[in-house]
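To illustrate this point, what follows is a protein record of this kind.

___
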Amino acid sequence: MELKKLLQEVPYEVLQGTDTLEIQKITYDSRKVEKGSLFVCVTGFQTDGHQYIPMALEKGAVAILTEHLVEDVPSQVTVIATKNNRQALAAVAAAFYEHPSASMEVVGVTGTNGKTTTTYLVKSVLDHVGRKVGIVGTIENRIGEEVIPSERTTPESLELQALLHQMKVSDVTDVIMEVSSHSLDLHRVDGIQYDVGVFTNLTQDHLDYHKTMENYKKAKAMLFARCKKSVINVDDGAGQFMIDCAAGEVMTFGIEKPCDLKAKDISISAAGSSFTLIYQGKQYDVKLHTPGRFSVYNALGAIGVCLCLGVPMTEILTGLAENSGVSGRFQAIRSKKGYQAVVDYAHTPDGLENVLKTAKEFAKGRIIAVFGCGGDRDKTKRPIMGRIGGEYADYCILTSDNPRTEDPEQILTEVEEGTKETGCAYEKQADRRIAIERAVAMAEEGDVIVVAGKGHETYQIFFDKTIHFDDVEEVRKAFGEDCL
């Protein structure tokens, strides 16, 4: 495609060469440059793409997209300057792949917690009515039944547009995408035409990046300024802000406040949740296979999305009932000895509180909580999560999550500060496998072991290595022959 066409929506200056040459490939990774490539210099958090111009030239780049003057570029190579190459990358990627999002219904799901479950509830309904669904998410990316491994919640803009193009040529009708605050702030999702956006909730997370909750909230709200329709949790403290930022039609949902989709008569058991839905003066019975008040909110959001996509209510309710749950999201493993474990991705204060509160609603015995906090992430939430564990559990085993470059013992000491305040009995065990084994060894009939923080993840990241680690596998191993 002609470079000028790719840059149609980007303010730019030609520093050298011409913008009429043909571009065969776009990349921001110098290792992936081929003859005829446009190399986009992206300034990252660890390194600066401008440093890799020599390698890109050596491998055959015919054009360079830069944010400032660069030297020693041969005269036959075009050099284009933009003010923000992340924005430019998103725009040229969308143009290169011929704006694939315009050919499908695209749903963006954002919020601190509940994104993945909401995504899969919507998928369950759309599968039920015979639509072909694409997923972009934390657990995996998916085109129909084909699973593509996922490295981050929302891919970089170039990979995202390539994935959307792949979905388009595979005849996907609807794309459901988890949209992280990082992806909005870093322009990864620029150039995507969203038909529906849904807001689940906003609680403390990612302050290592956003610094303040206000910045975090504003980043999330960017989604609704670009959606044709928005589905908003009005019970959440940030709900009204999201409504105020929404550009298109708004449908609200909740349990407490007046709204378009309201849940009442909520019943929660170990097997799942049920509630009465009130919508446009009519009442509907809703049944879910996942327990918890948070599950009700996720279902309400999913119902709102499906209504916006034109799915009849009767089909929505059947589709929801067919969803058996999501990997690593309140996933129950039962023992013949009468106790059970729940594995959940809860890695924020609010997420941990929701999971422990839900377990408490149906536990006949004690709650044993196994959790920790990730390294190189928001440190302020560590004592908060320690305190929440102590408040809602009967016994806490503080353990490693993904320590990354930090000392695991130091992280546990910071979590412990909060647990100490509650007077709850606890122990520290940095080895997550041993922590899970300890919890299982002390469990008795009626107890619920909550293993929180990693959910679907199948790895654990340390300073010097990444190892295979799966909470569900570890619980089953610890249960041994007693595992049902």
About this structure: Residues 356 and 389 are 8 Å apart (CA to CA). The radius of gyration is 24 Å. Residues 293-308 form the longest helix (16 residues).
